[in-house]
Amino acid sequence: MTMMDSHRSNFYEKRIGPDFLVYWIRVSSFVVWLLLGTFFLITDMARPEQTTFFDRLFDVSRRTVWDEQMMVISFIVAVVLFFFSLLSLIINTRRLKRKTDHISVSLVISLIVSTLSILLYIAYALNNMNSIY
Predict the structure, then answer these.
(1) How far apart are CA 106 and CA 112, in angstroms?
(2) Angle at 113 (CA atoms; ends 110, 119), nearest 5 degrees
(3) 23, part of any domain
């Protein structure tokens, strides 16, 4: 037994369980999926309604354009999702010290989806603004 082995046997492990950053990453992955689900639900409610056979039969009018108010709410959720994902991903990259640490795929996916949705909303808004004038 060497001097190092005797020193290691007297060492007390202070790290019991995950620290706050690991806990934050786990919770943020769950929150990100909730926000992403909310975003998709609101965006689905904003899209134009499809006409069915019975709508044509009974001459029921349906909304044929995107609901602007729901699109704004969807945009706000996408912006919140973007900043929350970005903050959590920054925290996640600062925490890559142990062999078991990894970058959360959920955070990367939500960052990509929120970025694309923000860009699509801006393109949609610019297109509608040009058609008004």
Answers:
(1) 10
(2) 135
(3) yes
Q: Which two tokens stand for residue 36?
A: 């992403």
**Residue 7, domain member (yes or no):** no
Statement: the pTM of the whole predicted model exceeds 0.90: no
With respect to residue 47, please indicate whether it lies within any of the assigned structural domains: yes
Query: How confident is the model over 99-128, as pLDDT tens digits?
Result: 777 889 999 999 999 999 999 999 988 988
Of 2-11, 67-76, 107-116, the poorest mean pLDDT is in 2-11
Alpha-carbon distance values, 128 to 78, 82, 105 (Å):
20, 24, 34
How many domains does the chain divide into? 1
Question: Phi and psi at residue 16, in whole multiples of 5°?
Answer: -110, 115
- The beta strand positions in 23-114, using DSSP E, are none
Q: Which stretch of DSSP H or E encloses residue 113? A: helix 105-132
Tokens 């078991």 sit at which residue? 100
Q: Which domain does 57 fall in, by range?
A: 19-132
Please check whether residue 59 lies inside any domain of the structure: yes
